[in-house]
Amino acid sequence: MKLLVTGGAGFIGSNFVLHMLRTYPELDLVNVDKLTYAGNLENLKSLEGDKRHRFIKLDIGDSAAIERLVGAELPDAVVNFAAESHVDRSIEGPEVFLRTNVLGTLSLLEACRKAGTPVFLQIGTDEVYGSLGEAGSFTEQSPLQPNSPYAASKAGADHLVRAYGKTYGMDVRITRCSNNYGPFQFPEKLIPLMLTNALEGRPLPVYGDGLNVRDWIFVTDHCRALDLVLQKGKPGEIYNIGGVAEKTNLEVVKTILAAVEADQSLIRFVEDRPGHDRRYAIDSSRLRGELGWVPEVDFGQGIALTVRWYREHESWWRRIKSGEYRQYYEKMYGKRL
Ligand code: NAD
Ligand code: DAU
């Protein structure tokens, strides 16, 4: 089997690439990534010399190059992780989110349509459903009510993917997952930011009252779900993926502080995120019932594994948070990290 993965140098993409090559010894995997600030080839260092993995630096929005690549490689499936993924950045500058997340997905869909790619798997997010009140959870039938430019761009991509299934009869599948955490997550997202700040003795900025709720999933459980959707999923279907670990942000932050034996006085309540979604919760009964998925790592185990990984890979995150990376980042993006 030949897979073409996009965004495979990012957090979830690199975990997925490693999972697939570990699980399928015969796999041929082409990994396409633009290497934005979030893409990091260090995540794939363990694959050096592995001929089953080929890395290609490319923007998914470069439609001519993408069409040539998909036409030449003729993969059995394309798995699209490539995206701008951080909500706060989308509030500061939405344009690149539309370019990559919507037009980039369109460029991939067109290339797959022309090449007759057998399966297109779109990695979506629960944020497209908007925000929940105190009770209930998102099902695949919940209306799309995105509240941030990031979520709106991902909803736009989902609509395009669905439309290519209906209009051109392509086998397209969409997954919508809740908040991931684990190794290789860029330290701008809640858990790695708080964890590395706590390890450095720096303040932990909690937005608003800290009572917003997210449903946390350890990244390898997400990767196993995606593998199942690729192997056994149905054309045109949407699969919600969630960890059944609803926590307030304050609970998450306090768990991290306790795990690294840092003082709770590091917590700082700061101005809230505009349009901040109050609560996410995912109903993944379709994935469990139809494809037999069960998460293997509970929140306590996942946090312990994550803390251990960040402690053991200090050079990975220190380089990102260091002056060297800041200089590169500020030059590229004209904005402070
Ligand atoms: P990430 O920001 O860590 O990685 C994104 C990767 O995409 C990076 O390697 C980056 O270089 C690459 N990329 C960005 N623009 C590109 C372009 N134009 N062309 C090619 N490559 C490009 O993101 P992540 O957290 O790993 O998320 C991966 C996917 O999963 C995204 O589609 C995101 O919407 C989705 N998702 C994330 C979460 C989560 O909790 N992190 C949850 C559900 C869904
Ligand atoms: O639900 C899936 C989504 O989860 C993915 O689609 C996104 O790509 C991913 O970034 C994530 O979005 P969130 O906005 O939920 O994640 P983030 O880590 O940015 O924030 C999690 C919660 O923590 C949110 O309520 C905002 C809060 N927060 C975040 C940061 C960075 C803080 O209180 N302080 C912070 O400094």
TrEMBL record:
Its cofactor is NAD(+). Coiled coil: none annotated. InterPro entries: dTDP_Gluc_deHydtase, NAD(P)-bd_dom, NAD(P)-bd_dom_sf. It catalyses: dTDP-alpha-D-glucose = dTDP-4-dehydro-6-deoxy-alpha-D-glucose + H2O. Residues 4-304 form the NAD(P)-binding domain. Belongs to the NAD(P)-dependent epimerase/dehydratase family. dTDP-glucose dehydratase subfamily. This is dTDP-glucose 4,6-dehydratase. It comes from Candidatus Glassbacteria bacterium RIFCSPLOWO2_12_FULL_58_11.
